[in-house]
Every structure is written in C-alpha cells, then in structure tokens.
Specification:
Layout (H helix, E strand, L loop, with lengths): L2 H21 L6 H29 L4 H32 L7 H24 L3 H19 L8 H25 L4 H27 L7 H19 L2
Helix pairs in contact: 1-5, 1-6, 2-5, 2-7, 2-8, 3-7, 4-5, 4-6, 4-7
C-alpha cells in the first residue's frame, strides 16, 4: 500500500471526527437533518451506480458467485436490521430512549466497520474504486457524526465517539485491503457484490427511511438528485 492510498483511506475517518466536532456545538433541526440525509443518499447511490456495479462487472467473477454474495449481503443486513429493532424495543421497554443505548451503539459500530471493509475491498480491486467509495461514504460518516447529538452525548463525548468511529472505519479499511490484496477475481467480485447489498440497504433502510420521518419538503427531491449529480460530476471530471 502506498502513501496516497493511506491518505485517501484516512478521509472518512477525519470526516467522521469532523462531524462529531461540528455536532458538539451545532444541533441541526429535523428538516436540516432530512436534507443532509437526502444528499448523503444521493451520493451513496451514485457511488453504487457509477463505480461499484461497473467495477463488479470488470472483475469478471462467475455469475453464481456474485448472485450468492449479493444474497448473503442482503441476508446479513436484514439480520442487522432485526437486531437493531430488537435493541430499540429493549431500550424503549427500559425507558432508556433518551440516553446512550450501548446495544444500538454497537450496531452502529458494526455498520461503520462494514463501510470500512467496503473501502478496503475497493482499493484491493484497483483503479479508482477505493477512492470513489471513500469519498462517497465520507458523506454518510459526516451525517453519522451529526446524528450522535443527544442528551447523553454532549460536548466531548460526541467528539470521542466520532473519533472511535473514525478509527474503526480506518482500521477495517486497512484490514480489508490487506486481506484482499492479490485475491482472485472471484473473491474480490463476491466481496464487492456483498458490499453492494450493504450500500443499497444503507440508502433505502437507513438514510431515506429516517429522512422521511419528518414532513418532507419538495426541495428534498432536488437535494437527493443534487447529491447524485455532485458525486457523478467529480467522477466524470476526474477521468
């Protein structure tokens, strides 16, 4: 791994930390959060459509491997969703909904670790895939830092949690790149197909679902497309 790749891998970690620092003194209202989520969803959709899916095709992995890996990724994210719902119900039953729920925080760390491994797999695939995914998922991590604000996580606690999330995404990115370096096309293609399912879940079941919990303004649609266009423009102009 060269220094350039390491610096790019560090961007999501720094963005996560920056989001936590920003959240320590800025509390965006629900409408602002919704707009941020729509923009992040557009960016992640662009990363999926513009870079990840074409890269899966370029790997020339066997069709059954890709189908099985995507199905496995779908089942994994479905299981993670069921677990998160169970933790939320437990938190509500114990009256801890306004505090820092350890179980839900663990689920968040697992989600971020998945993001990091996806980035590492992208770098192992070669080309610009790792860079594109790192930039795209940085937007999600920025929102995640902003979303940490609560009565139980204020001030330095938000910054500390964001730093831990940043360290997690960087560590798993390095691990993914190390484990998949020199791997076969089938293994890398399967890993990227698994990652595609995870990103699709991120957009449909996290970002957009949470964004629609408040009354949506018409401009939200433009923000979604703006996120897609911004990311696609970066990819096109960088060619």
């Amino acid at each position: 791994m060269n220094t350039h790749d390491l610096l790019i891998m560090s961007i999501p970690a720094l963005v996560a930390l920056g989001g936590g620092f920003l959240a320590s003194f800025w509390k965006p209202d629900h409408q602002t959060r919704s707009l941020i989520q729509h923009f992040a969803a557009g960016v992640v959709l662009a990363a999926l459509a513009v870079e990840l899916l074409p890269e899966i095709s370029r790997e020339h992995a066997p069709g059954p491997v890709l189908i099985g890996a995507f199905a496995l990724g779908s089942l994994f994210m479905y299981g993670l969703k069921l677990w998160s719902m169970h933790l939320e119900h437990e938190a509500e039953a114990s009256g801890a909904t306004d505090g820092l729920n350890t179980g839900l925080l663990l689920a968040t760390f697992i989600d971020v670790a998945m993001d990091g491994f996806i980035i590492g797999a992208g770098f192992a695939a070669g080309g610009e895939t790792g860079t594109i995914l790192a930039l795209g998922l940085s937007v999600e991590l920025l929102f995640l830092g902003l979303a940490l604000s609560s009565a139980a996580t204020a001030g330095w606690r938000i910054v500390a949690l964001s730093g831990a999330l940043g360290a997690t995404v960087l560590g798993t990115a390095l691990a993914g790149n190390l484990l998949l370096a020199g791997a076969s096309h089938a293994l890398i293609g399967g890993t990227l197909a698994f990652s595609a399912a995870a990103l699709l879940y991120l957009v449909t079941e996290e970002l957009l679902m949470e964004a629609h919990e408040v009354e949506e303004k018409p401009v939200s649609t433009l923000v979604l497309f703006g996120g897609f266009l911004a990311f696609w423009s970066i990819q096109l102009l960088g060619q």
